[in-house]
From TrEMBL:
UniProt family annotation: Belongs to the purine/pyrimidine phosphoribosyltransferase family.
Name of the gene this protein is made from: hpt
UniProt key word Nucleotide-binding: yes
Protein name, as recorded: Hypoxanthine phosphoribosyltransferase
Enzyme Commission designation: 2.4.2.8
Signal peptide limits: none
UniProt superkingdom: Bacteria
Function: Purine salvage pathway enzyme that catalyzes the transfer of the ribosyl-5-phosphate group from 5-phospho-alpha-D-ribose 1-diphosphate (PRPP) to the N9 position of the 6-oxopurines hypoxanthine and guanine to form the corresponding ribonucleotides IMP (inosine 5'-monophosphate) and GMP (guanosine 5'-monophosphate), with the release of PPi.
Assigned keywords, A-Z: Cytoplasm, Glycosyltransferase, Magnesium, Metal-binding, Nucleotide-binding, Purine salvage, Transferase
CDD domains tied to this protein: PRTases_typeI (cd06223)
Cofactor requirements of the protein: Mg(2+)
Residues of the Phosphoribosyltransferase domain: 14-161
Pathways involved: Purine metabolism; GMP biosynthesis via salvage pathway; GMP from guanine: step 1/1; Purine metabolism; IMP biosynthesis via salvage pathway; IMP from hypoxanthine: step 1/1
Amino acid sequence: MNNDIERVLYSESQIQSRIAEIAKQIENDYADKQPVVISVLTGAILFTVDLLEKLDVYTTLDFIDVSSYFGGTESSGRVELVRDLKSDVKGKDILICEDIIDSGRTLQFLVDLLKKRGAKSIKVATMLDKPDGRDEAVTVEADYAGFTVPNEFLVGYGLDYDGFYRNLPYVGILKPAVYSK
């Protein structure tokens, strides 16, 4: 797998250091709250787990699965709810954990859904933010972002191509030859 990487953007130690910084910000913002942390499957699992381990606030955890890629390298523009939450979010403070905000359509879909369901507040933590990929119609932004990344095809640390590369401990740029076959 490492041979498929053009270059590493963020090492494992850089990622863990940045997550610790984000955790401190979240602790300050949620000191008197007990947020429901919603991890967006499957890519955000590693980020969510590492973040939760560093947080010193009471939280509950739930998962939601949405898709807009359907195995491709670019968002299809259509967001589909694949697996819904088990929690009732009405009247609760919500912290969405996302692996990457690219077009932003998935995040917009989630925020709108949680607002309709009566969430008291919604904040977003993302490991990676790719503003150059953002759809102009998207109005939501991350409250906590690990790194701003270039408009490249990234894998590792939860990010995949065709289901692979999620287990790399770093974030890297996938060689175009791998996904243009």
